[in-house]
Write a sequence for this structure.
């Protein structure tokens, strides 16, 4: 069906962008916690 051929790339790109956004958010939170915890550990 022509609809499927149009819908799948859009859904794939949208899902990919959401996954990348969550990965960047997770990385940012991890770095933030690391910056907070490193001075506590090395005191």
């Amino acid at each position: 069906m022509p609809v499927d051929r149009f819908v799948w790339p859009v859904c794939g790109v949208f899902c990919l962008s959401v996954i990348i956004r969550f990965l960047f958010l997770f990385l940012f939170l991890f770095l933030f916690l690391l910056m907070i915890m490193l001075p506590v550990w090395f005191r």
In short: The chain has a mean pLDDT of 86. The longest helix spans residues 2-41. The radius of gyration is 19 Å. The CA atoms of residues 4 and 10 lie 10 Å apart.
